[in-house]
Amino acid sequence: MLETSVVDDNYAAEPSAACELDDAIERCGSCSTPVLLRRPNPSSPASAWLCRRCGSVFFARPQEQDGKLVRGVAKPISYHDVMRELNTHLASSPHSVNRHDAMRLVECFANRKFMGTDTRGQQRHIVAAPVTVVPLSGDLRIAAPAERVLTLNVSSGGAALFHARRIPQPYLAIDFTYAGVNLLPVLLETTRVRQIANSYEIAGRFVCRILP
Predict the structure, then answer these.
(1) What global pTM score does this model have?
(2) Which domain holds residue 23?
(3) Domain containing residue 122: CATH number
């Protein structure tokens, strides 16, 4: 939890505190308090938001009404502060992929034609790079500790990742800092998870950038 603070319960109960939107994230999935956020898209990227009641962190965008922000109990916070806290617990994680095994798998993928329904029309670039992923629930709330994984391939529309264990959450925030790559973090929607020997391939499509 990044912060504990007092929430105005009277405000949270006001009927005007919510607006009906197809992509709305009205309430925190952890404490059910109105956060009044929206799902991001390519033209409206995500940023980090903190539920001031329970400390849950979302990667979403704010709701607006008549050109003005709709105030819920979520407040914007620094993406770098979120990642700094997540990274303090990451070094001791027991789940890691042997880099030599991963490189052999990447070479195998480089010589293999993709089979099945291809949801990415863009050219795949075979590359193995260590990145940090943050598992997110369906409401784009951090749902599990961050993990260090390896990329298998990357395109302009998505990526395939390789990890020692299955990550079941439907969304991932991907941070490229550990790989030494100067790229903005991205939000990935998982479209395929399959087991390969004792590890897992996790593939998906990019939803949008995450503003730091």
Answers:
(1) 0.81
(2) 9-77
(3) 2.40.10.220
Out of 24, 57, 77, pick the residue that ends a domain: 77
Per-residue model confidence as pLDDT tens digits over 142-165: 999 999 999 988 998 999 999 989
One-letter amino acid for residue 193 of the chain: V
Q: Are residues 197 and 105 in the same domain?
A: yes
pLDDT digits (tens, 9 = 90+) for 95-105: 555 566 666 66
Q: Percentage of the chain with pLDDT > 70?
A: 75
Residue 2: inside a domain, yes or no?
no
107 occurs within a structural domain: yes
